[in-house]
Design brief:
By secondary structure, the protein is α+β, with helices and mostly antiparallel strands. The chain has three domains: about 50 residues; about 80 residues, Carboxypeptidase-like, regulatory domain (Immunoglobulin-like); about 110 residues, no CATH class. The chain has a four-stranded antiparallel beta sheet with strand order 3-2-5-6, with no helix packed on it. It has a three-stranded mixed beta sheet with strand order 4-1-7. Helix 1 packs antiparallel against helix 2. The radius of gyration is 47 Å and the shape is elongated.
Length: about 290
């Protein structure tokens, strides 16, 4: 290596004669070129011969079991390897190189290559396990509050409804119109992301507004028809056995709103009528006594 540096210095010194005789400079340089190439090749070969393939095994310091998938890095020469399932590894090293071993669940470990490692058939590296301090975990069978609320709302509960002759319960699928013509539905922000064009049409188009108004009137008409089938003289008569003027007076006394009748299930409406009947009879008995 020193000889190569000496030759380079000599070639550089020839540069001082370029201004006098350029041909002489290149002629002298070409005389030393083969020697320079030989010296550089010999130096590179010597460096390559100094590097050896270090073999070893990685073990758990606690139980002597092999540790797989450990990252083995030669940070001096920027080389890396990974240990096998048996904990074995191989990596090129020079004397004095720094090795680092890292793996999840273990503390990192460093090793400087000495003559001992170079002369050994293999090296044994033991890694100590890392202890992780975890916070307190509360096990809740219901999950988070939001998860519990969602599960609760999705429960299918028997409402205990009963059938009344001549009364048909409300359909679960009441939507029979496009979303753009449903004034309440199209206002929801989710439609702005799912279908921006439908959202803009349903909220700002005059044509959509007219269609929404028409559907609203039709819905109110259908609701009234549904309520009339659900709460009428025949239904109340079958429940209370009232007739004539007493029946009309009792129905006026009930004073159920349209939304109450529509919202009540058949069972809930029947219970509400029976409760009203008890109160109505107490009032009637009190009036008779007076």
């Amino acid at each position: 290596m020193q000889a190569a540096l000496t030759i380079i210095d000599n070639i550089y010194s020839f540069g001082t004669i370029i201004h006098r005789n350029e041909k002489t400079f290149f002629a002298e340089a070409m005389r030393f070129l083969p020697i320079l190439i030989f010296c550089l090749a010999h130096a590179s070969l010597s460096l390559a011969q100094d590097r050896v393939l270090l073999a070893g095994f990685l073990k758990n310091q606690l139980n002597e079991e092999p540790v797989a998938n450990v990252h083995v890095m030669n940070i001096t020469d920027s080389l890396a390897s990974i240990s096998s399932l048996e904990g074995a590894f191989k990596i090129p090293v020079h004397l004095g190189d720094s090795l680092v071993f890292t793996s999840i669940g273990f503390h990192s470990k460093a090793l400087i290559v000495t003559e001992k490692e170079l002369n050994a058939d293999y090296v044994e590296v033991k890694l100590s396990q890392r202890q992780y301090q975890l916070g307190v975990v509360e096990v809740n069978p219901f999950g988070t509050k939001d998860q519990f609320r969602k599960k609760f709302m999705e429960l299918e509960v028997d409402d205990g409804s009963i059938k009344i002759v001549g009364v048909q319960g409300p359909s679960k699928e009441r939507r029979t119109i496009p979303i753009t013509e449903d004034a309440d539905e199209i206002k929801k922000a989710k439609h702005l992301f799912k279908s921006p064009a439908s959202f803009l049409y349903g909220n700002f188009s005059k044509d959509a507004k007219m269609r929404q108004k028409l559907h609203r009137l039709e819905a109110e008409k259908a609701k009234n028809q549904y309520n009339n089938k659900k709460f009428n003289e025949d239904v109340v008569h079958r429940i209370t056995q009232y007739e004539g003027a007493q029946l009309i007076e009792f129905m006026d006394y009930c004073n159920f709103s349209e939304s109450q009748i529509y919202r009540y299930s058949d069972y809930e409406l029947t219970v509400a009528i029976l409760n009203k009947q008890k109160a109505f009879e107490r009032i009637s008995q009190g009036s008779s006594t007076n």
